[in-house]
Design goal:
Structural class: mainly alpha
Shape: globular
Helix content: 40-55%
Number of domains: 1
Radius of gyration: 17 Å
Number of helices: 10
Strand content: under 5%
Oligomer: single chain
Amino acid sequence: MSFVGPSKPFVERLGAFIADPQAVVDLRRYFGIGLSPGAVAFTGSRFEHLAGGGDRAEVADRITAEDLIAVETLSVTIPVERKLDLLEGQLGAQLSDLLASIPTAVDLADAEAAVVADGSPADQAWNLLESQHGLGWVIAGKLLARKRPRLLPVYDKVVRCALGRPRPSFWLALHAALREDDAALHRQLLELRQAAGLPETVSALRVCDVAVWMNHRALGHPCP
C-alpha cells in the first residue's frame, strides 16, 4: 500500500501555527504555567494527566471512568447510555479488542502510515465509535487521543477550521507533515513544548492541537 506525501498548503498552515511566537504564550496559558493570581488553567489541561493518563499500562486497552471525564474536559458531553456501554457493555469490549492492536509507545511521526490508514485497528476503532455507535467524529477522535496521546491527534471543529479537511484523512495528512524533511515539524513541536515549560507527558500531538486551537479560537473560529 502506498501513501501520498503531505500537501504543501496543509504543511504551511500547520507550520505557521507552530512557528508563531504566540504559541508559547498560548500553551502556558492553557496549561496554567505562570498564571497571574486568580487565573486558572483550561480544564483541557487535565485531559492527558487525569488519573495518570489513559495510556498507562494497566488501562491502555480499556475505557475507564477517568477516560470519560478526561474527554469531557475538552468541552464535549458523552451520552450516559454510551458511557455505560463503554464501561460495561459490548461497545467497551469491542473497543478494547481494537485498542489491543494499536501501539502505545510510539509517536505519530515515528509510526508507519499503515498504523493510521483506512482499515487499520485505529481506523476501525474510530468508525466503531463515530458511525456504528453515533458518538460523532469529534468525540470519537478525542476518546482515542486520550488512549493513544502520542499516536492519535485531537481533531475538532476549531482545528478543522484552522487546518481544513485534508484527504485522504487528517491522520494521514498530519503523519506525512510530521515526517517531512526528516521530521522537522515534529522536532519543532518538541522544542515548543520545552520553550513553554511543559512536561514530557504532554505529547507532541497535544502541543500541536493546543497551539492551533488557542490561536484559531482567538480569531473567533470563523468557519461553520
